[in-house]
Structure formats: structure tokens, C-alpha cells
Write a structure and sequence with these properties.
This protein has about 210 residues and is an all-alpha fold. It has ten helices and no strands. It is globular, with a radius of gyration of 21 Å.
Length: about 210
């Protein structure tokens, strides 16, 4: 008697869902810091400290593996997820409430440029013009600058964009997409760096001139 092995269809590709779950976990770490549960708050602080140290070298990077690999990143994206985890630990923040129109790093740096001027512009110009191998270094510098002024950054969007920018692409099949991302960052930067950018409308109310008597 012969038996037939029943085969099942492979599960659908859920990479984007795993990316979302991973970044949501990072935001939860930030929320846990202010938790009334002292154990949870202490554990979140320790985890973020380990993630920050991943920039120090391979040995320190290994401390971040458990946080990242719990979400099963595709092998080709592992180094990018580790990078985003480290960047988040440098500038932890609350999760954006609005899922639509999330700001790019170009917008965030443009808002910073309104206060810091030419020094921010130089950093941003380097960011959008360097080769992929140097991009993590300049990203780290930009995120550290954003942290000093508490300007938020959408890490869901950033991870998706960095996958396109940094994933191995020996045949340049993704070249057009990479160029579009850099151009989008540049466009967003120049829009946000203008003084009349809508994001600052409430921060700079219109001033009125007192009427003078005839």
C-alpha cells in the first residue's frame, strides 16, 4: 500500500508584516521606559542600551541579535534591521499616531535646518549623496542631531526605505527606486526647511501690529 504525502502551500510572504512588528516593538520599548512597572522599565532601558552599543563593533552588535532575530528578518535584510534598531536606540520616541503621510528623514532634517542652518544642510547633503556603504555612518550622525532637538522620525518608513537603499543589488536592478528615495528625501528637506512650512504654523503665530491713533 502506498501513501501519498500531503503537501501544503508555502505561507504567503509576510516580510512587510514582520518589519512592522519589529518597529512597533522598538516603539514599545520606549513606552515601557515610563511604565509604572519598574522591572519592565529597567528591562527596556537595558535593551535600548544594548542596541546603542551595536555601533561599537561586532562583539557589541551581538548583544542586539536577540531583539532583532526574534522577529525573523530575511537574511538579506538582517544588517539593515540591526542598523534601524541602533538608530532607534540613539533617538527613541513614541510611535506616530497618524499612519498616513509619515514624514521622511528629509522632512525631519529640514525642520532641524530652520534652527541650525548651514551645518544641517551640509550633513544632509552628505547623506543623500554618499555611496550605500557610507550611508549608515551619515544616518547615525543625522539621527543624533535630530535627537538633540527632539525632532521625531518615522522608523516604519525609514526601515522600508533603507531596505531598498542598502540591500545587496549587484546587478543594479533597484537603481531607479534608490534614486527616487534620495530625491524624495531631498525634496522633503527643501520643503520643510522653508520658514512657512505647515509643521511650524502653530509654533509661529502671526504677529499683528497694534493700531495707532490718528
Amino acid at each position: 500500500m502506498t501513501t501519498t504525502r500531503k503537501t501544503t502551500a508555502p505561507p504567503p510572504n509576510n516580510t512587510r508584516q514582520r518589519r512592522g512588528d519589529f518597529v512597533t516593538h522598538l516603539y514599545r520599548l520606549n513606552r515601557s521606559i515610563s511604565s509604572d512597572n519598574r522591572h519592565a522599565a529597567a528591562e527596556a532601558r537595558r535593551t535600548l542600551a544594548r542596541l546603542r552599543r551595536c555601533f561599537a563593533g561586532p562583539r557589541q552588535e551581538a548583544d542586539a541579535y536577540s531583539t532583532v532575530f526574534d522577529f525573523d528578518p530575511p537574511e538579506a535584510e538582517q544588517h539593515i534591521w540591526l542598523l534601524v534598531a541602533g538608530l532607534f536606540a540613539l533617538h527613541p520616541q513614541a510611535q506616530p499616531q497618524d499612519a498616513h503621510g509619515r514624514a521622511s528623514i528629509g522632512t525631519a532634517m529640514g525642520l532641524l535646518a530652520q534652527d541650525r542652518g548651514d551645518s544641517v544642510q551640509r550633513r544632509f547633503t552628505q547623506l543623500v549623496s554618499v555611496e550605500a556603504a557610507s550611508l549608515p555612518h551619515y544616518l547615525r550622525q543625522c539621527v543624533q542631531l535630530l535627537a538633540t532637538s527632539a525632532i521625531p522620525l518615522d522608523y516604519h518608513r525609514l526601515l522600508d526605505e533603507l531596505v531598498d537603499l542598502l540591500i545587496d543589488d549587484p546587478y543594479q536592478r533597484n537603481a531607479d527606486r534608490r534614486q527616487r528615495i534620495r530625491l524624495t528625501w531631498a525634496r522633503d528637506y527643501h520643503r520643510a526647511s522653508r520658514p512657512h512650512h505647515p509643521a511650524n504654523a502653530e509654533a509661529a503665530p502671526e504677529q499683528t501690529t497694534p493700531e495707532t491713533s490718528a
